[in-house]
Amino acid sequence: MSNPRPEFAVYESTLKSGSGGGTFDGMEARVSRLESQVDKVEERLTSIEVTLARIEAKLDGKVDTIIATLGSKIDYKWITVYFLGIVAVILRSEIAAVFN
């Protein structure tokens, strides 16, 4: 099989194809190390999934209660006053012209 990229043609004569017995000495050890690291990552991911499931179970229904509680405690009068204050600052020159 010919390599479609000419810049790699030099490697075709030095690398064997098929059985993996090419010039990459030590590749098996590196692959083995990567595989063991992937196993560790999978274990950690499983642990994270279990922890998230536990947190989700604890929070189930509580978020709705918290949102309802916060919604009932919002004082809309102060929001209106704050909004009108911002409008007054923006339109201050027009408001001052009315009183002059």
Describe this structure in words.
- This protein has 100 residues and is mainly alpha-helical.
- Helix content is 72%, strand content 0%.
- It is elongated.
What descriptors fit this protein?
100 residues, mainly alpha, 5 helices
What is the averaged pLDDT score?
A: 78
Helix content: over 70%
> Distance between the terminal alpha carbons, to the nearest Å?
91 Å
> How much β-strand is present in the residues?
under 5%
How is the quaternary structure best described? single chain
Q: Based on helices, strands and strand pairing, what is the structural class?
A: mainly alpha
Rg over CA atoms: 34 Å
Note the main sheet: none
Number of H/I helices: 5
Outline, from the CA principal axes? elongated
Could you spell the SSE succession in H and E letters?
HHHHH
Annotation, overall tally of beta strands: 0
Low-confidence stretches: none
